[in-house]
Amino acid sequence: MTGGRKSFPQPDSLMDEFALIELITTRLDARPGAMGGVGDDAAILEIPEGRQLVVSTDTLVEGVHFEVGALPQDVAYKSLAVNLSDLAAMGARPAWFFLALTLPDLDSGWIESFADGLNEAAQAAGVALAGGDTTRGPLSITITACGLVRPGEALLRSGARVGDVIAVSGSTGLAGLALDERSRGREPAPAALAALNRPTARIELGRSLVGLASSCIDISDGLLADLAHISRASGVGMEVRLRDLPCPPELAELPQEDRWNLQLGAGDDYELCFTVSRDRWDQVEQSAKAIGVPVTQIGEAVQGEGCICLMPDGRVFQPGRAGYNHGA
Amino acid sequence: MTGGRKSFPQPDSLMDEFALIELITTRLDARPGAMGGVGDDAAILEIPEGRQLVVSTDTLVEGVHFEVGALPQDVAYKSLAVNLSDLAAMGARPAWFFLALTLPDLDSGWIESFADGLNEAAQAAGVALAGGDTTRGPLSITITACGLVRPGEALLRSGARVGDVIAVSGSTGLAGLALDERSRGREPAPAALAALNRPTARIELGRSLVGLASSCIDISDGLLADLAHISRASGVGMEVRLRDLPCPPELAELPQEDRWNLQLGAGDDYELCFTVSRDRWDQVEQSAKAIGVPVTQIGEAVQGEGCICLMPDGRVFQPGRAGYNHGA
Fold first, then answer.
1. Which domains does chain B have, with CATH numbers?
2. Among A185, B20, B80, B217, which residue has the least CB neighbours within 10 Å?
3. Segment A218-241 mean pLDDT
4. What is the ipTM, given to two decimal places?
């Protein structure tokens, strides 16, 4: 990664001049020389020659994307992870991110924990805070993440071809299970909570799919909803075999239909869903194995449009939820 | 400007799938070929060789940075303008921006007007929407703007030297006057309202200062507060002569002290404040004249630290407000 000049100009009077920003940046500035001194109106990024910049931006709002009272370190971790997941889906190598943090009031303990969670996610991905803004208002976090690819490398949604294998990384439905459990007043299983609060961006997998996958997306809205994006952008139909959906143990005891609905419709999984021509599958499987991320074939791109899900008996399943609505 | 691939992946179920995003992007996509089709998890930007990327991010929150019920086209215009102003202060040429829009509900009329205001500001600056996110929550707008400079071109806060001239573009205090009038239940003068709602980013002036100004900042927090940033970053003191502050006609009738306080302390002006060595002043003045933006010498960088303001009789003025606090 190349260096840059950090910008974090506006404390907006939440506390003494630079105190808030310092609280955040000192907990994140683990790279010697990365920071020219907090200040300046904007950050300066050195883009290496022969690279394109891949940019993603996502907002998380309290009470919509995370519950009121959620742990600040989890909120921070997830805010960055969902953006890194977008970069992963493009096959990009994360480089920098910008933080726009809106806080209702000043709670330095909260802010320190938030900065720690952000640092944890940033360190894990090798990405550096390059600038941001802090303002007063209802709690929300907008992160803009920047990654790098060589020209033409980026994975798009539009390249799926008839006959391609559809695959997913890891498994789906765990984050949705946590939300379901919580909405019923039950404490979710630890693995489900971890999936919801600490999603792992599949950065290395995304990188390994460059030159192999014909299309790729991260599963944020729900497997079927996201697969429908690929379907539309590529002009192909999608046929998913339900018996092949990788099932986490926490979902194994659910009634079959509930399980499928969670696995197909619940969002917030941040796994990658991708297509690849059949003759490249072995390569995909090998590199995924080397990275230590399971990948599973779950269906095939077909002629036509839209997505259908086939039950083990060959009949078409009608999913009961059409994608995860954040609080809607 | 080079092309890019637009990303706007997540409608977040505020309305039909892509309808909200289409509402926005169709009103902004005035560049043939700039848009590869809405979709993909992130945007791809082609950074021209030999350029650094300058990135600014700013959030505007309803009830904090603009009043509840403000016109959506003004809110949009200002959201982009304040970010372009940061790029202007760096001497960068704006290229792209990303929009993270959080809306409490769906009001397609509001959204259309918002998109129109955004388009107006974008067209004026020659900057293209490259991607974004839409979510549900309390109304707020985070824009991340990207500009380009040649390596070493960027104007910083840290270059002011003892003996440099301090200068401002346009005049200050009009936006503050509008806020003051409004807080007293009076309708502000049109010029004051325009300054508050439709600030002009001084992009061309910023570009013309490249290679001339020793430091630069945009006046968002208030002239003195922003000058203090330059003072601190450069390690010099600042001496402002109050009789030289350019005074807009709307402020001319105010008691002298009120006027100075507004001109020194109120924020939201988005003029440029910069320093330049005395022997380059003629060049600055000529290029500013060619652009049609007035620039005025208001003081001098001196040995020491901090900012002092000298009244016409030579005594030091103690400002009554220390910088504009957004709702704080």
1. 4-149 (3.30.1330.10), 165-317 (3.90.650.10)
2. A185
3. 96
4. 0.89
